[in-house]
Please model this.
Amino acid sequence: MRISIIGSGYVGLTTGVGFALKNHKVWFVDVDKRKVDMINRATSPIYEPGLEEALREVHSKGLVRATLSYEEAIKSTEITFIAVPTPTKDDGSIDLRFIENVSRSIGEALKDKDKHIVVVKSTVLPGITENVVKEIIKQVSKNDNIYFAMNPEFLREGRAMEDVLNPDRVVIGVEDEYAKEKLLSLYKDFVSEDRILIMPIRSAELVKYSSNAFLSMKISYSNLIGRLAKRLGIDVYEVMDAVGMDKRIGRDFLNAGLGFGGSCFPKDVKALSYFTKSLNVRNTLWEEVLEINETQIGELINIMKSVVGSLKGKEIVVLGLSFKPDTDDIRESRALKLIKKLIDEKAEKVYAHDPIAIDNAKKELSHDKVEYIYDLQDALSRADIVVIATEWEMYKNEELYKDKIVFDGRRVIRGEHARYYEGLSW
Ligand code: UDX
Model:
């Protein structure tokens, strides 16, 4: 198949390279010339394990091309995927700026085009594919030969290529046979047919939010049980190991700690909560999920204060800045929020370490009280109070914490050699 992908970020690029690995010809479109040039040189603009090797392979076979021109990409292809961001505004409503702009440009490029399918891969609330994307494209293109679909992406950062090539399931929202058959034949190469779920477009849109909200809920649930466990002197991990063995529940996403961050969970739960309210459906569940998540940092700060007294004037080492290990992504990272809180508490200095996320963290948080340190030993030599905020593998060595006062936000160590060790919920 000939496929164009609008937006060459995490989702667009990994999905497109995945298609090309199955011998489809893929055109990437992006507004960022730097990204376009990099893809055309077979260099990945983002870090994701296995992506660059795969990009080099498909590039050498002539299966991928990037361009700034919608016209060029869309005229050369039969199916277009939209994979641009859908951020959430401060009030919780979804920001459709990118989706609307992209739809207009696709509409222009489809003016005299023969049969074409437009698939929304971006996370959008139920109704947006039909009421916004389809409406705009039909209005601008005046073309009746366009078919629409919604196909959410469930990939995890750090495992994106793995998730693209071996998905648990593929969800396809369609309204006609043509788009259905085309997408079925595209995805049959990735997953067995019983794992491809065909449904109305709105249902597919809701699947994505329901999945992310459920996983977020599991984390906040564990954090709530964790608060209780902490008050009772119980290790919540021991409890969740037993709870998770129930097949109906499952052990994944029951790890208590500083909570969830990243580009998806916080924004999607916020958008779902706002949307539900806008339909006058009574709901407090998701607000609670977010509330627990936001207040986990305060829980840790309180524990720290109960041990070392006021944080005013204290020097503190913070280990881990990315929102989870194995990525340099710091979006909605709990670690950066924690550092801001430590500064609010008048800590004298925060020495912040991360194996790969420091450069991104610097752009997000620069403050005279925060010093970023690239070398782990060096960071640890700066102060006695240590907080572990992200569970990088390199932090697991107990020896590192000899004589330190350690507060563990992710249950990374046991604190065998620490002068003092205390976990957030264990
Ligand atoms: C997530 C979804 O997993 C993915 O399906 C969706 O497409 C996008 O959002 P990602 O943002 O890459 O993917 O991160 P994920 O690995 O799911 O972790 C999200 C956050 O939850 C991280 O901050 C992580 O530290 C936290 N988390 C995860 C916990 O606090 N406890 C857990 O048990 C699991």
